[in-house]
Design goal:
The chain is an alpha+beta fold. It contains three helices and four strands. The chain has a four-stranded antiparallel beta sheet, covered by helices on one side. Strand 1 and strand 2 form a beta hairpin.
């Protein structure tokens, strides 16, 4: 059967229609997409950083354990190095003594060769600063001067200086008592 609605248009019942849903434009959703991407990037970065920190902490712990396992060997190496240095020091002292073993003998030999006739040495002393003090007696200042020249020309003696030259008397004889200072070199 056919139905005809004779009511005017304004009074007619309207058919129910479903509400229309408008889909927002792509530009309106863009800020939400950007925020989502940034949040995802931050999450991924945080996760990676956390994982990396955990890996590095485990690596540090492993390296510390390894370091502790090497501690006894390092202590032995340190002790051996210290003993080696002590042995080197002793060998250096021995080598120095061996090198200077004949040095003082040569010095005394040169002094003995330089002593002129009628000059007697009473004392030859090594001073702490590496210099030598020589004391003696003779009959004349000229003999003292000759001794100083001969000593200065010797290979090991240098800088011979007269300290004191004074008149004295020994067993009735007039003598000159003198003191010299001189450096020596090996």
């Amino acid at each position: 059967m056919i139905r005809i609605n004779l009511l005017p248009r304004e009074e007619r019942t309207r058919r129910r229609t479903l509400p229309k849903i408008q889909i927002p434009a792509v530009g309106a959703a863009l800020p939400f997409v950007v925020v989502g991407v940034v949040a995802a990037a931050i999450g991924v970065t945080h996760t990676n950083a956390t994982r990396r920190v955990a890996n590095l902490q485990s690596e540090v712990a492993e390296l510390r354990r390894e370091q502790e396992s090497y501690a006894p060997q390092l202590e032995k190496i340190r002790q051996i190095t210290q003993k080696r240095q002590e042995v080197r020091n002793r060998l250096d002292i021995i080598a120095n003594l061996d090198q200077e073993r004949y040095y003082r003998v040569q010095l005394m030999d040169e002094v003995a060769r330089c002593v002129p006739e009628n000059l007697w040495l009473t004392k030859v002393q090594e001073l702490p600063d590496g210099r030598f003090a020589i004391e003696g007696v003779t009959f004349s200042n000229f003999i003292v001067a000759r001794f100083m020249q001969d000593l200065e020309s010797a290979s090991h003696w240098k800088g011979v200086e007269l300290g004191i030259a004074e008149q004295g008397r020994i067993e009735g004889y007039d003598v000159v008592k003198f003191t010299l200072a001189s450096g020596a070199q090996p």
